[in-house]
Specification:
Two copies of one chain form a homodimer.
Chain A (H helix, E strand, L loop, with lengths): L8 H8 L7 E7 L5 E8 L7 E8 L8 H13 L7 E2 L8 E3 L2 E7 L11 H18 L12 H11 L1 H7 L6 H9 L8 E4 L8 E4 L2 E5 L6 E4 H12 L9 H14 L4 H28 L12 H13 L6
Antiparallel strand pairs in A: 1-2, 2-3, 3-6, 4-6, 5-6, 7-10, 8-9
Helix pairs in contact in A: 3-7, 3-8, 4-6, 4-9, 6-9, 7-9, 9-10
Organism (chains A, B): Erythrobacter dokdonensis DSW-74
Catalytic activity (chains A, B): L-homoserine + ATP = O-phospho-L-homoserine + ADP + H(+)
GO biological process, one term (chains A, B): threonine biosynthetic process
């Protein structure tokens, strides 16, 4: 949540000059994105009427070989009318450039704010947009493997080890066996497309009940669309105390199915996939927790939040799509 | 350089509703300001044509009793045509409100970017604007003592202690005696006004050679205008290796004097005040250096930068305004 690389006004102006967007008017480093440096950039625009962009400088966490997949997906989805920011190509047609040894991309700025406490009506909207995205992405020509699939979560939890997991919370070590069970699921028969897989409210811009932007596609990958719905369900439909919000859950699925009805195989696997989705966040948060000193300035996210959500799906998940 | 307080979309929308600025359109936490949380906020505007603001939530470093001074000064200067952001008052006329137990203010957004490597022409511009500000502020009715005056710098260096200062650099302990000499200067006969006292390029917005905004007035105080000129000189007129840039220095003073000629007493004291100004940054940086663990994620600023600049003024300062 920071700007990791300093770019002075002259660096920014030079970078912007490679794009047909007019001249630099202002630039503010923004506190968004954990793996990139981002600036909200204003230019005079092609026509002098002004234009705004997000300039992203990709720090080390992202494999640059994946950038054509991520940035091309934005263009593909925007072309089909999905509310995602378009990639601005430079004068040579490139979607990203190397600057100071790092990849940089200029991306359309979209209005909207991320809901802090989503309502059921907002959950319905995001469900519909998610399904729209899955349909629109189905003919996207590139693919990317899910680096955080259920096998990867299991491997992370195994590397943490039961003993160290227990130092965070005594309820954590048993999640290892559950992660192994999720990794053993056969999802190959489920409908596939390109998926966001990290669609927390923070990664959605809204104005009122309308979705104005899905952002931060840097976990996007090819895989079962059911996983994306399950991640979104787990991310949107619980309150701050991790209690299930039935109205949001029902609205999210209803919104999704208003655009793309679920298949019987998806309904049958929903609870298991939602449990696997929870364990993906349990794993990454537990790893971060153990890697971050207690006195670090960075806020650690509590892995137990998603253990609690896992327990909900374990107990009540089968009834959700019945 | 971060957003310290999380405000969700609903919090932001509610806060904005207390102002006559239309409805919230977007909000991005920005990576500016070390003692506050800041958002770049867009609204539909009073007239529906859109408007932008900086929303600041004041964290613990600022004494809230000083806010009327800081925010009133912005309005006073803006009224007189100085390029500073105006404070937006809420529907009850208040310049700041309490939100989540913290003071919040909505401030005009100004275009421009901070120069990374200022040119002499840019230094001339900032000199002229600084003098304009000093003249415009001279009838501002509030006052605020300089909490970082030369006596305060000396006290900080004394608290650090010669031994610990030597662990940073062997050239640092001798600065203690020089700080005492600066604290003994009699500046009472110099022209006074409201002063910024922290006008680094980071705190100036420019478009090309024109100053579009002076920002971050949270060290502003009542005192000798010469100190403000000296701080600005020390902050703008050295390269990254702390070598004096004579062209910038001459242009800055020339720009200043094009609006407000210096008095003989100011010329006579310039070198000594510039040395004192350097020691103010030596002191705060040395203190931060000793307080910040070696492995902290925060970047520490090297106090020796301003020891080198002090040495320049000690050797050559008397000739600068001759």
């Amino acid at each position: 949540m920071a700007v990791y690389t300093h770019l002075g006004a002259e660096d920014l102006a030079r970078l912007i000059s490679h794009y047909d967007v007019g001249e630099l008017v202002s630039a503010k480093g923004i506190a968004e994105g954990v793996s990139n440096s981002n600036w909200l950039v204003e230019t005079t625009g092609k026509d002098g009427a002004g234009a705004r962009f997000i300039l992203t400088l990709y720090e080390r966490r992202i494999d640059y070989a994946d950038l054509p997949y991520f940035l091309g997906l934005l263009d593909h989805l925007a072309d089909k009318g999905c509310p995602v920011p378009r990639t601005i190509h430079d004068r040579e047609g490139a979607a990203f450039r190397m600057e100071h040894g790092k990849a940089a991309a200029l991306i359309e700025f979209l209005p909207g704010v991320s809901p802090g406490r989503p309502t059921a009506t907002q959950a319905r909207s995001i469900g519909a947009v998610l399904a729209q995205m899955h349909l629109a992405a189905s003919d996207y020509p590139l693919t990317r493997a899910n680096a955080m699939d259920f096998a990867a979560s299991t491997a992370i939890l195994e590397l943490c080890g039961a003993e160290r997991l227990a130092t965070i919370d005594p309820g954590l070590p048993e999640m290892l066996a559950h992660a192994r069970a999720a990794a053993a699921l056969d999802l190959s028969g489920l409908p596939q497309s390109q998926t966001h897989t990290d669609l927390f409210p923070d990664n959605v811009l809204m104005r009122g009940n309308a979705v104005t932007g899905l952002i931060d596609f840097y976990f996007a990958c090819t895989g079962p669309t059911l996983l994306d719905l399950a991640v979104t369900h787990a991310a949107w439909c619980f309150d701050a105390d991790n209690r299930y919000r039935a109205d949001c859950g029902a609205a999210l699925v209803e919104g999704y199915e208003s655009v793309r009805p679920l298949e019987p195989a998806e309904r049958a696997l929903f609870a298991d996939v939602a449990k696997g989705a929870c364990l993906r966040f349990v794993a990454s948060r537990a790893e971060d927790w153990l890697d971050t000193p207690d006195d670090a300035l960075v806020t650690r996210k509590d892995p137990m939040q998603f253990v609690k959500r896992w327990r909900f799906y374990d107990e009540a998940g089968d009834g959700l799509l019945a």
